[in-house]
Write a structure and sequence with these properties.
By secondary structure, the protein is of the alpha/beta class. Helix content is about 35%, strand content about 20%. The chain is globular and about 65 Å long. Bound molecules: nicotinamide-adenine-dinucleotide.
């Protein structure tokens, strides 16, 4: 983590009382002392927003009733927020992110970026024009051993990549009566055109791309909703073709009873393979032809610079979800600091382009599935 002068002033849209990921973003932002939460429009009504702001100790005049008021109010202050985190349901990502970028704020937005590829491209253009930093919290790419896997695969340690398998298994949407967080996720007007595909499939796709650097060339997909009456997919299986001939399999589900947050990635090359699992994230399995299996451990021997930089504790003291999330936040802070010094940094955090790629992936999969699994060019 490079040197910095003072914490960045952070404002949050969404993430009120009882929300899930907003609190994780706040922990992640706080972990390395790189941000200070100064303002929020935290909920869907002015009353709930202000109550949530008060609970977090925000100054009353900076606990706004709406995101529009927040952007205007913080823009007008000399000590206004510099970075806006967007942690609302998906349908608000586009209007809030676009307005924030156009107003000159740096943005950290949760996934999936927006509902449509047209929106994603408009947002990407706005980011290019404003020259601001824009990150998408594909947080699984923040795990040290995922960064290790990336370094090994891209460094050719596995030889030529032949096959990639990404799996994301959950069971919490198996019944259709799961409550508030399920309600918006299964409502196309708020979730967007994809269900499990957008919610967790985009994470899996980004992980494949982050680790391997392979470019998707075509996809053949089947989407299903097992819960009767559900408007969006709760299960999806995809075959992938990559430029250069590698093949992939990506499967995601939210109706697999008993599965919690079981995200797995396996990469098979001509000389070896790597396997990683989010529920045991401090171990990376490395297999080579005709050699004993190696278990690479976070903080342990034999790791490269990328993994070491993303690690805070010695080996054996588990690090996990919040620390990985914090690596995204800290990467963004490093990039903002570098730009302020007039320097360029290789961004290891997912950018707006990764967000666009995720939305494109969603659209191509939907197209393929709507045509009975036809191979659809990327
Ligand atoms: N990166 C990850 O691992 C991860 C995990 C979970 C969720 N997410 C993403 O984060 C986002 C939020 O998901 P969640 O599970 O926390 O949802 P949630 O329902 O728990 O929380 C959403 C919050 O947004 C607030 N909100 C709604 N409308 C608002 C408005 N107009 N203005 C301000 N706030 C408003 C709600 O009051 C609530 O506080 C989604 O885009 C989701 O896909 C990402």
């Amino acid at each position: 983590m490079s040197g910095y002068e003072r914490p960045l002033r952070l404002a949050m849209v969404g993430g009120g009382k009882d929300a899930f990921i907003g609190a994780v973003h706040r922990h992640a932002a706080a972990l390395d002392g790189r941000y200070q939460l100064v303002a929020g429009a935290l909920s869907s009504t002015p009353e709930r927003s202000r109550a949530s702001g008060e609970a977090l100790g925000l100054a009353p005049e900076r606990s706004y009733g709406s995101w529009q008021d927040l952007l205007a109010g913080e823009k007008a202050r000399e000590d206004g927020a510099e970075v806006i985190s967007i942690v609302t349901p998906n349908h608000l990502h586009f209007p809030v992110a676009l307005a924030a970028v156009q107003a000159g704020f740096h943005v950290i937005c949760d996934k999936p970026l927006v509902h449509t590829l047209a929106q994603a491209q408009e947002l990407e253009q706005a980011v290019q024009q404003s020259g601001t930093v824009f990150a998408v919290t594909y947080n699984y790419s923040g795990y040290p051993l995922i960064r290790q896997a990336r370094e090994m695969v891209r460094g050719g340690v596995l030889g030529e990549v032949r096959k990639v398998i990404a799996e994301y298994h959950q069971g919490w949407l198996a019944t259709g009566s799961e409550g508030k967080q399920a309600d918006w996720r299964t409502d196309p007007s708020r979730s967007g055109p994809a269900g499990a595909l957008g919610d967790i499939g985009t994470h899996a796709e980004q992980l494949v791309s982050f680790v391997t650097g392979l470019e998707l060339s075509a996809v053949a997909a089947e989407l299903t909703h097992f819960v009767p009456g559900r408007a969006l997919d709760d299960d999806a299986s995809m075959l992938l073709r990559f430029a250069g001939g590698a093949k992939g399999l990506l499967t995601v589900s939210q109706i697999e009873i008993g599965r919690e947050n079981d995200l797995r990635l396996s990469v098979f090359g001509s000389r070896g393979s790597l396997s990683w699992c989010q529920e045991n994230p401090n171990v990376l399995i490395y297999d080579q032809l005709a050699a004993p299996r190696q278990l690479l451990t976070r903080g342990g021997p034999g790791l490269g610079a990328a993994a070491q930089q993303a690690t805070r504790l010695p080996a054996g003291h588990p690090e996990a979800f919040i620390e990985a999330f914090a690596n995204i936040y800290t990467g963004v802070a490093d990039d903002i600091a570098a730009r302020q010094r007039g320097e360029q940094l290789e961004a290891l955090y997912p950018t707006v382009q990764d967000g666009v790629q995720g939305v494109k992936f969603m659209e191509r999969v939907l197209e393929s599935a709507a045509d009975d699994g036809r191979w659809t060019a990327f």
